[in-house]
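Researcher: Please generate the 3D structure of the following complex. Treat every line as part of one assembly.
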Amino acid sequence: MPDTPGPTNGSNAGGVRVGVYVCHCGTNIAGTVDVSAVSKYAAGLPGVMVSRDYKYMCSDPGQALIQQDIREHSLNRIVVASCSPLLHEPTFRRAIDRAGLNSFMLQMVNIREHVSWVHLDKQAATSKANDLIRAAVRRVFLHKPLQRRRVAINPNVLVVGGGIAGIHAALTLAGAGKHVYMVEREPTIGGHMAKFDKTFPTLDCAACILTPKMTAVGTHPGITLWTYAEVGNVSGYVGNYKVQVKRKPRYIIEDLCLGCQECVTACVYKEGKTPDEFNLGLSKRKPVYLPFPQAVPQKVVIDPDTCIEFKSGKCKKTCVEACGERGAIDFKQKETLEEIEVGTIILATGFKSFNAGRNAYYGYGRYPNVYTSLEVERLINASGPTGGELILRDGKRPKAVGIIHCVGSRDANTNRWCSRVCCMYSLKLAHLIKERTGAEVFNFYIDMRTPGKGYEEFYDRLLDEGVHFVRGRVAEVTDWAAHPSEKGKLVIRAEDTLAAFVRRVPVDMVVLSTGLEPQADAQAVRRLFNISCSSEGWFLERHPKLAPVSTFTEGVYIAGACQGPKDIPDTVAQAGAAAAEALALIDAQFVELEPYTAFISEEECSGCKSCIALCPYQAISFVEEKKKATINEVLCKGCGTCVAGCPSGSIQQNFFEDEEIFEEIEGVLAYA
Amino acid sequence: MQLKRTVKFEADRDPEFARWISHTVGGERIRHCLQCGLCSASCPLSLYMDYTPRRLMHLSREGFKEEVLSSSSIWLCTACYACMVECPKKINITHLMYALKERAIEERFYPKRFPIPVMAQQFCRMVRDSGRITESWLIVRVFLRSAIWRLLGMSGLGWKLFAAGRMNVKKEKIQRSREITVLLDSVADTRKELAL
Amino acid sequence: MKYAYYPGCSLRGTGRAYEESLLAVFRSLEIEIQELDDWNCCGATTYLSVDELTSYALAARNLALAERVGMDIIAPCAACYLVLNKTQRYIRDYPDIKTVVSRALAKIELEYHDRVRVRHPLDVFLNDIGLKAISAKVVKPLKGLKVAPYYGCQIVRPYATFDDQRNPISMDRLLEACGATVVSYPLKTRCCGGSQKGTLPEIGLDLIRYLIAEAQRNGADVIATVCPLCQFNLECFQKEAGSVRHPLSIPVLYFTQLMALALGAPAATIGLRRSLVPVEPVLAAKEIAYA
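Model: Done. Output below.
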C-alpha cells in the first residue's frame, strides 16, 4: 500500500485542512435543502477551513473555485456535497488533481439522489444533509493519497474461435499490424457459416464469400493459426495475459502435409464408416479425412478412435505408403502445449443448434424424413452428402416439404428467446428447395421476423414464389393417417390462425428450423477467461446497448453469436467492433487501474488461507516462505470479499479502510 | 346469400370481463398469449368448435363476453390438458375453460335443456345430497331434463350393463352426509368474507 | 406399507370390473390396503365446471381423511387421480384456496397439511413393487396376446409424476412383464371425449372411432385402459362407431384384469364376464387359460 503523501501546494504541517462545497444544482438540491444553512453548518465543523455553496459546482467556474481555494488556503482535503458520485466524482477528482492535490483526498456526499430528490420535508432534508456532510468531513480526515497504477499493454491479441466472427476480427487486427493468435477447436476454421449453402438475403454462396477470408487467415504472416486446439489456462490481467494453448495431435506433420488426400484414397477402409461431422452425420468418412474440401488449413486429420492402427497397432498403413517421400504421417504425435503472452483476448466461440430431439412431438430421430435446418443446408450444398440433390434418407425425392419455424425458441418449455435468424433462413430454405425441386413448400410460422437490410424485400420475393405460409405453431408431426390422402406421409397438424381452422398438411419431408443456443461448454469457457454469462447462458456484455462487445473483465472482448443469436452482418459488425476496442487499448499503450485494491497486513496475517478461496479473481496467492497470503494489486478488482472474510481482520481495502468507514458512521450518528 | 355486417365498437367490449379473466385462478398469464395456435392444433375437439381455444383466449382477454360465453367451445372442452402441455407461454388454458364454464352456468348463457350444464348441475346436486354419484340415476335425471328420447335410445345399452352387473341401482351414499352440507356452507361463507 | 384405497364412484358402477381385478392384483402382490373410510365423490371434472372452490373442498375432505390415518392414497380412476392431485397443487399454490379449504375442513373437524401423496396403481406397481417382482409372480403369461395400451389424458396430463408426458410406457412395461406383446399405438394419449359421448353423441363418437380403428389396424387383440370412462366409451359404442365396410370389434379391458389373469386369478373374480365385447374367444384363440 503506497504511503507517500501526494503533492500538495502550500503547507501540510498544520494538519488537516478541509474545504466543503455545497452545490445548489439549480433548484434540484436548493429547492429542498437550505444550502446556505448547510454551508454555514459545515463551516463550524472541526478542520474545515473553507465552506461555500454555489449554483453548479460541476461547472468550470465551480471547479475553478475549488482549485483557487486549494491554492490560496492550502487545503488538503475536499468534500463536495452534490449529486451522485457516479456522475461527477471523476470530474472533481480531475479538478483537484489539476490543482496539485491527490485525486483521492476527495469525498463526495450525495445530497441530491439521497436527500433532495427523495424527501419533501425541507427541515428534515436540511438536517439530513448536515449529518451526511459531518460524516464525510470526519471520514475525509483519514483519506490517504492513493496512486493509480499503470500497466503496459502487450500488443499481441488472442482470438478464440475461427468462425466468421473470429476470422474478421483477426484479419482486422492483423491488418493493423498486430500479431494475432487464433485458436480453433475444430481441425479447420470456418465455423457454422462454412456449412451453409447460400446466405440470406443476397443468396451469396456462403463458401464463396467465406473461403477467401479463411485463406487470408491461413496465409497472413501476422496470424498464427492453431486449429484442433483449445485454450487450457489463462492467467494474468489486462495487457498481460499468459495463455496456455493445448494442440491436439492430428497425427499429421502440418508443415509437411500438402492436402493432396492420397492417404485418404489409399486408406484400408474402402468406404467411410464413421458419421461425418461436417455433414452432420448424413454421410460417412474414413479415419483419415479432410474436414471439407475448402478446409483451412488444408491438412488431413487422423481420428484415433476409428483408425485401426491405434486400435490394434497392426494396420497395413497404406496411407503412409501413399504419402511416400513427404512422410507427413506421424502416429506417435503427442499433444503439444504452447505458452503465449497477449494483451487482449477476443472470444468468438459461436453458438450451438438446439437439439431437435428434445421436442418429441416433432418426431426428429423417430421419422427418418424429419431434418434440422443445418442438415438441409448440407443436403442442398453442392459439396454435401448428396451432391446438392434433395434426396431423403429413404431415397425418395420430396414432392411436398414442410418447414417448421421456432423449434426450441420462444418456448417456456425449452428456450424463451427468439433466435433471430430462423425466420430468414427458413425463407431462404423455402426458396432454395422450391427452386431445386419444384416441390410444394409450406412454412409454418408464428411471426415473420425480417428486421435487417433487405430482409423484408426478401420476404416479398418469397411471397411471389408460391410458397404456402401458414401462421400457426405446429402441434405435432405424425405418421398416423386420418384421411386416405395422408397414407405414407408425414402429417403436420397446425391451426391456420389466419383462416381460423385446424389444418392437416401431409408432406414427404419436414424441416425443423432449430434455434440457437449457447455452446455446451459456455460456462467452462467463461470461467477460463473470467467473464460472466447471462442467465440464459450467453456471454455477458458490459452493457446491452452501449458496450455490446466488451465484458466486465478488462481486455477480454466478445463478438458474434457467443454474445447472443445474430445473423452474419451483425456478427461481422461486432467482430470489427471488438477488434477496434482491442486496438484502442493497444494504441493507448498503458492502462490505468483504480487503486481500490485490497492489501494484507503481513504482521497480522495468520496464514489461514481463507481469503484465497474467496477471491473470485484469483488475485490472492500464498507465499510459502513467509507463510502469508499476498494480493496481486493488478488482478484485484476491489470487490471487498476477502476484506470481509478475513478472520483476523488483516485485510484492508484502499479507500474503504475500516477506520474510514467507522468515522463516517460515527459522523452520521453524532448529533450536533 | 346471407349478408351480415360485423364491426366491433369499443362499447361492445366488457372491460370487467377482461379484468375478471386475467385475475381468475389460471388467468395470470393470459396477456402473454402469442396467438401461436398450438393449443387449437393439439386440441382433439377444436375441429368442432366455433371459436378455437386460441381465438377464445384472445376474445376473453379483450372482453368480448357475449361471443365467449355463448360459444360452443367451452362446452366441447373435455379438459384433456393437451393444450397446456405444449403451450410456449405456459398459459393455464384448461383451467380458464373451467372458469368460463362456471361463469356461463352462473349467468345462464346456454340454450335451455342443453345437456352439458344440465349434467353438471345434476352431478353437483347428487354429490351435495349423497356425497357420492350413482351413475344410473345420474343418467336418468340428466336425460329426463334434457333429451328424454335419448333415454329410450340407450335402453338397449342400459339393459346390457344391468345384466353384466355394472348398473348400480342402489343409491350410493356416505355415512356422514351432513359433513358435505357443512363443507358447502363454510365455502360459501368464506367466499363471501374474502370476496372471492 | 399400507395404502388408503380410494375407489371413486365409477368403480361401484360401470367400472366394477376395475375394482374386482385391482383388488385381485393387490392380493396377489401382497399390497396391503384399507378402503378410505367414508370417502366422498371427488367431483371429477364436472364439479370444477360449476364451482371450483367447492370442488377443492370436497376433494380435500378425502385428502384429510387419508392424512388422519397416515396413509398415501391409491386412486385407480384416472379422473379421481387427477382431481386429487390438482387439489393438492392448487391448495399449495394459491393461498386463497388454502384458506377456504382449511376453514371448511376445520368445520368438520379435519385438517390437511399436505402430508399425503396421491398415487395411481401403475405408479405403485412399477415403482413400489417393481417389474421384476411382478414377473416372478406371473403364473399364466399372456403369451401371444397383442395389447394396445391406452393411457388417455388424465394420468399423464397435466401432471406426469411417474411417466413421460408425451410417450408414457409404464403400462407397456407392466403388460410386457406379464408376457403380453404391446403393439404400437400412437394415439395412446389422445382424448376419448370423456362424457361428450353422452352429451354430444356425434362428436363423442368421432373421437372414439379413431381410437378403436387404430388399435385394430395395428393388430391389437385387446385394448387395455386405466380409466372407467375411457373403458366405457371404447367398449360400448363399437357397433355405432363402425360401419358395414369397416366393422369395429375389439375387447376393451382394464390393465388390472390382464395383470390379474397373468397372476393366476380365476376369471370369475376379475369381472371378465362383465365385458360387453367378450374377451374369452380371444384368450381361447391364444391358448391363454382363463378358467
